[in-house]
Design goal:
Layout: H1 4-9, H2 19-31, E1 40-41, H3 44-51, H4 55-67, E2 71-74, E3 78-81, E4 100-101, H5 113-125, H6 139-151, E5 161-164, H7 167-178, E6 184-189, H8 193-201, E7 205-212, E8 215-216, H9 218-228, E9 232-235, H10 249-262, E10 265-269, E11 294-298, E12 310-313, H11 316-325, H12 335-345, H13 348-370, E13 386-390, H14 396-404, E14 408-409, E15 425-429, H15 434-453
Parallel strand pairs: 4-14, 6-7, 6-9, 9-10, 10-11
Antiparallel strand pairs: 1-3, 2-3, 5-12, 7-8, 11-12, 13-15
Helix pairs in contact: 2-4, 3-4, 5-12, 6-12, 7-8, 9-10, 13-15, 14-15
Length: 468
Amino acid sequence: MSSRLVEQIGAHSAAGASASALSMQIRALILDGRLTVGERLPSERALAAELRRSRSTITRVYDLLESDGYALRLHGGGTLVALPHAPGALPPADGGAESIDLSIASMDSTPGLYDATVRSLPRLAAMRGTSGYSLQGLPELRDAIAQRFTQRGAPTSADQIIVTSGALNGMNLILATIGRRGERALVEQPTFPHAIEALRRHGYRMVPTPVDVDGWDAHHLMDLLLRARPHIGYLIPDFHNPTGASLPEESRARIAATARSAGTRLIVDETTAELDIDRGWTPTPLAAHSPQVISIGSMSKIAWGGMRLGWIRADRDLVGRLLAVRPSFELGTALLEQCIAIELLDDMPSLSAHVTARLRAGRAAVATGLEGISGLQMPPTPGGLSAWLDLGAPVSTQLSLAAREHGLVLPPGPRFATGGVLDRRLRIPITLPPERTLAAIDRLRLAWEDVCDGSVAHAGELPRATVI
């Protein structure tokens, strides 16, 4: 069985790479989070055997990583992943300009957040005589969330809702309740990186199905469900992160029915479902097509990332099981956030209008910036968090490394995939203020010129396993 490092690098393509190229690729994996600080790397002997390289070459790779501060050798304790500087301290080559972080695709808070907070205080004060614990969530908030599902075409009652501390928190609760180590999990390729990490942490084996800006291969997805019969499937059907695609209405019922036939529980991530710019149509939630679908959502993308509040929608039997497990690691969601969310959801049209306006401005800024970069084009982006660029060649990792030299934190395409693929793809958030976006794209232009000029490692020196 291959080590995690070799899965990311790609054993076949590493055969002819120099020690310098291999160390650069491992460094790239560390910088974009695919290898974590403190993680143990394979021994020199084991890595040499996996990559079919000489022991001296691997020793040289680790020497380079250690000298640059990306590895820590412990006597008798192996080699650990390290960083040469504090997280976030990325010394740019332009003399210390402030870094711009494109690894987070999220807007700042809605203008109505302050007023909603003020209006929520009397409701919070009225609960001072209670215990303050809210395992399932405030009834009024659960009712508001249920009503929103019903308005979108999935009839829902408040007892089908659990309020969580964010969508990822909800996903981890679901996996802690129904997860089965060693089973398969269907995931989109690409997808939300932290979902992949959560599934791996719970012992799942990934089974990927492709998604691009023009959508899903529905036949591949359904065939995979029937052949692999994964225990669970994780999908983002509306304004998919990172591609921005939306699953067609006619495919939703067929996929839901196929998953049910295969015995697969679908976990549907709806954190991006309300991020519409100009899609031109409104699909029904996947939950409308099968009672077995589990939906997770969040206020973080439509209101503010600082509001750690999300929800789970599930059948009543599963809700009972989730509530039985939840106290083992959490006793509920903060009441203040719940009270604020009630106020915000009460004026959903204003919230949606703000989101649309901000995303439209962000999309326009990205498109304007890309016009000044030869070889890059703005893809169709009708909504969602980001533009999913096709670089035309497997240079995303190189571009990410070059961008850091210009004070730009830019996760490469493989960060959103399993197995280190999609190195010709790049996610650019459309969520930053336009002026910040234009500054980021200008730094991207400088990094792109470095890659095109050969100022960073040649594409041929990078692992070909990252080519799709």
